[in-house]
């Protein structure tokens, strides 16, 4: 347009220099000049439009060519990434599989430098185990973990194994630790625990089993410890086997304990791990030892004490495991009405020595 303007100004200057003989001739000459100028201007504008059209077409063609070349380059790069390659990783191990930007990404296999022992086989992302894969113990054959990974850690559903190939844990994992529903196993393959986990510890509802697979405890857990309400089926507690409800890992409520020979040792009420309330204790031959009240694991309140095979020898009141007042028996015969501070009749003493094999601990020192 600047070129056209200059041309118009040039023509106007030439027109001004012309000397016409009269006004009529001057007007006619001016009309001719103006028409010529307009025609030249229009032609110039058409030329400019054609030039713009050509340039626009060339630009669009180059854009399309660039896009085609970029697509071809992306396809070539993708094809290159899909081709397995062999790399040496920072730790000196070898990698064979797909890559992205020169780093393990996609399916691949990691081995030792000699490629004799497998380390990991599965999915990768940005040079880390990510997706589904298997890692191996040092022998390169025995699985260590088989399952889902995220950023190089056990994450998702998976199974871990010991060096013998026996299952250790199976279930949900988060950041390399059991978290959620899962099961742990003993070395003999039997279940050890089944239930909920938090950060690698029993937490929530779960069941513990003994080495034979029999149920030990079913109930609530917190940070790996029995916590809250639960039920013991067969668990050692203070040297005996117990069954019954628990509170925070201790017998609480109506329960039963057993001698090591399997005979019943106690049946009755418990509170926070102690015999407390009404209950019956038994000798290891299954015969009654005491029936009555208990407090914090000791005979307390109204109760009856017995000797082996002889039945009751005392009925009365007890305090902290010691008789305070009541009746001594020999067989079914009442021998003496007695209270604390009173001397025990000599016949009663002889009877205790003969029937119980000595003076029982619950008889006070007079």
TrEMBL record:
Alphabetical list of Gene3D superfamilies matching this protein: Histone H3 K4-specific methyltransferase SET7/9 N-terminal domain (2.20.110.10)
Keywords annotated in UniProt: Coiled coil, Repeat
InterPro entries with a match to the protein in the record: MORN
SUPFAM superfamilies noted in UniProt: Histone H3 K4-specific methyltransferase SET7/9 N-terminal domain (SSF82185)
Annotated TM spans: none
Coiled-coil blocks: 52-79
Annotated protein name in UniProt: Uncharacterized protein
Organism: Vitrella brassicaformis (strain CCMP3155)
Organismal lineage: Eukaryota, Sar, Alveolata, Colpodellida, Vitrellaceae
């Amino acid at each position: 347009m600047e070129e056209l303007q200059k041309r118009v100004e040039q023509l106007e200057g030439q027109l001004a220099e012309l000397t016409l003989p009269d006004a009529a001739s001057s007007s006619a000459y001016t009309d001719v000049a103006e028409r010529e100028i307009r025609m030249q201007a229009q032609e110039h504008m058409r030329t400019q439009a054609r030039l713009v059209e050509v340039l626009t077409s060339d630009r669009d063609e180059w854009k399309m060519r660039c896009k085609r070349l970029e697509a071809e380059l992306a396809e070539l790069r993708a094809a290159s990434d899909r081709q397995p390659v062999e790399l040496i990783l920072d730790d000196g191990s070898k990698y064979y599989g797909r890559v992205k930007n020169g780093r393990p990404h996609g399916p691949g296999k990691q081995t030792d430098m000699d490629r004799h022992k497998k380390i990991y086989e599965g999915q990768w992302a940005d040079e880390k185990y990510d997706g589904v894969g298997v890692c191996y113990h040092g022998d390169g054959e025995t699985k260590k973990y088989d399952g889902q990974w995220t950023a190089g850690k056990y994450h998702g559903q998976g199974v871990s194994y010991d060096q013998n190939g026996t299952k250790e844990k199976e279930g949900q994992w988060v950041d390399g630790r059991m978290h959620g529903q899962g099961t742990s196993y003993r070395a003999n393959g039997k279940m050890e625990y089944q239930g909920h986990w938090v950060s690698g510890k029993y937490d929530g509802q779960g069941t513990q089993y003994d080495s034979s697979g029999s149920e030990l405890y079913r109930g609530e857990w917190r940070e790996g410890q029995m916590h809250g309400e639960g039920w013991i089926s067969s668990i050692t507690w203070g040297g005996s086997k117990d069954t019954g409800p628990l509170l925070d890992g201790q017998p609480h409520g109506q329960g039963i304990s057993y001698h090591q020979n399997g005979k019943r040792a106690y049946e009755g009420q418990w509170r926070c791990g102690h015999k407390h309330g009404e209950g019956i204790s038994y000798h290891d031959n299954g015969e009654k030892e005491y029936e009555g009240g208990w407090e914090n694991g000791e005979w307390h309140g109204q109760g009856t004490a017995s000797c082996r095979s002889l039945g009751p020898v005392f009925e009365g009141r007890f305090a902290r495991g010691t008789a305070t007042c009541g009746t001594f028996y020999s067989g079914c015969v009442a021998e003496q009405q007695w209270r604390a501070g009173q001397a025990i009749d000599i016949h009663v003493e002889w009877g205790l020595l003969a029937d119980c094999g000595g003076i029982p601990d619950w008889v006070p020192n007079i």
